[in-house]
Write a structure and sequence with these properties.
Elements (H helix, E strand, L loop, with lengths): L6 H33 L13 E7 L5 H14 L3 E5 L14 E5 L4 H7 L4 E6 L15 E7 L19 E4 L2 H14 L5 E4 L3 H12 L9 E4 L8 H14 L4 E4 L5 H4 L1 H10 L6 E3 L6 H6 L2 E4 L4 H8 L4 E3 L19 H9 E3 L8 H9 L2 H14 L6 H21 L5
Parallel strand pairs: 1-2, 1-4, 2-3, 4-5, 5-6, 6-7, 8-9, 8-11, 9-10, 11-12, 12-13
Length: 416
Amino acid sequence: MLLYIDPGTGSMLFTVLIGVAGALIYALRNVLGKARFLFSGGAKARGKAAGREEIVFFTDSGRYWNIFKPLCDEMECRGQKVLYLTASPDDPLLKESYDHIRCEFAGEGNKAYARMNFIKADIVLSSTPGLDVYQWKRSRDVKWYAHIIHAPNDVTRYRMFGLDYFDAVLVSGEYQVGQIRGLEKVRELPEKEVVLVGLPQLDYMREKLLNNPSPEKDGVTVLLAPSWGPSSIFNRFGEKMIRTLTATGHHLIIRPHPQSMTSEKELIDRLQAQFPNGEGLEWNFDNDNFDVLNRADILISDFSGVMFDFALVFNKPIIYADVSFDKRPYDASWLEEEMWTLTVLDRIGKQLTPENAEHIGELIDECLNAPELAAGREQARQETWVNIGSSVQATADYLTEKEKALREESKTGPDK
């Protein structure tokens, strides 16, 4: 009889095994270290420990390469050594060639976390939340863990305890500082460093836009970019939405969420068969979304971070489909104030409802000619995107100064 282990139990067992293995390895390392100390006559080695990295960048997904690409470029210019580790074998940064930056595939899933659990570094900067919550544990040989946010919205949208055990969080807006302090207060946690640096990924996209202005074209281009799952546009409105949009006479680009190609492939295949590529309609599956965002005049989406990329960087209006959000699994459920995302959507776009969906053409025209939405985008930009154009430098400055301070501290005490 085969035994079934559910995913939650499997994750717990893996965590226990990693913890036991870590304790054994660390104990053995201490024994070997003491032996070397005795046989060397008691002389303590000075300088950087063997195999120790100064700064490590880690991401669990290659879709966050646009955060780390500008940071790697900046560190390369500064001559700062960095190890970039990714859990995606197709991460675009693995194809980059640097003199001071090493880009390596850390393995997928638990293999990546297993490597991270025993890594030696002064600083680990990651876009991945959940340190010390599930499989990813703090390494005893890392002095400082920092998290960098990957979207210009609420940090409370992470799953519970996602940021609790980092030493620092790099954010882009004052309201995010307040959210972190609020969570620390209700959970009675010590204050971590919260640093306003900005959004390297948006600066990267902004710089690219300055060098590649929107192409000239006839007519209006509509980008339909839903998320996935039962509340997504495709599942709520289905082919009726596509049919209504094509009837407007506008050029339509349909860009499904990458997860749809795994979790909803049958749905996407059916819609593609019903609405094939043609003169007024195209499907887009590019890894980089810059081109379609640049070409589009308006974006239709649901509860997706791409709305903020489009509104804040490209300064164009959005139509959003769903603002319902079950806060229970997320850090937002611990705080009483309303999420910033929910307060800003009606300032930068208009909501799509079952009632106005049949008149989507009129809604598009209304958004394209609404000066109050342009003012709302500017206000949102000021609230959630500090250091516009210089966030990469601000982030790099923080990391290099922190690494220098940690190195100075290690000279007066034992290596961690």
